[in-house]
Amino acid sequence: MKMIKECFDNNISLPNEILNAADLTGCEEIEFNTLENAVVAMKTTMNAMELIKVAEGLKNLSEELIVHLAGICGRCHDCSYCDRFEEYDEIIVPDYLLEEAGIPKDAKLCACTEEDSGEIIVMQADYDYDIADVPKFVIDIFEMSGICIRELEERIMMEDIVYGD
Question: How far apart are the C-alpha atoms of 13 and 28, rounded to whole Å?
């Protein structure tokens, strides 16, 4: 069951329909586990089968979210980017050079070349995330399924909304 609930003053009340659907009615305590951008509410004590059902539900939700993202990105139509895609190597620049350039040590870096100059220019990226931040299992799924990795990277870098309104 999925329900959209407005958040007032950083407080959310769980409606009875949600508690009933999750079989959490009558619980004296509910455990909340935080994930980045999500919260999971579950019983504080469970038997083996209940725990298995929670794990299966989380796996199914994970699969649904990845399938949703794949649908947004779409199939690759033989783009050269996906054909030659390999995992990126991290750009490593000594701290003293970053300091000289006024770039924070933890900044995301990007690189480009000046055509025919033999020079590589490394600079602070103007985005927070790129394909290098995507877990390998997601890349593997997209590659095996023929989903366009270039489209995924573009949506990540542009911070496009890909779920909800």
Answer: 16
* Torsional class of 116: left (φ above 0), alpha (ψ -120 to 50), beta (otherwise): left
| 72, part of any domain | no
The per-residue pLDDT of the chain, averaged, comes to: 89
Residue 132, in any domain of the structure: no
Q: What is the pLDDT of residues 110-129, one digit of tens each?
A: 888 888 888 889 999 999 99
The four Cα atoms 37, 40, 41, 44 give a dihedral, to 10 degrees, of: -130
User: For the CA atoms of the chain, what is the radius of gyration?
Assistant: 22
In a domain, 101, yes or no: yes
Q: DSSP 3-state assignment of 24?
A: coil
Secondary structure (DSSP) of 66-105: HHHHHHHH-B--S-HHHHT--PPPPP---HHHHHHHT--T
Neighbours of 113 (CB within 10 A): 10
Report how far residue 84's alpha carbon sits from residue 165's, in angstroms, rounded to the nearest whole number. Answer: 34
The whole-angstrom separation of Cα 105 and Cα 96 is 9
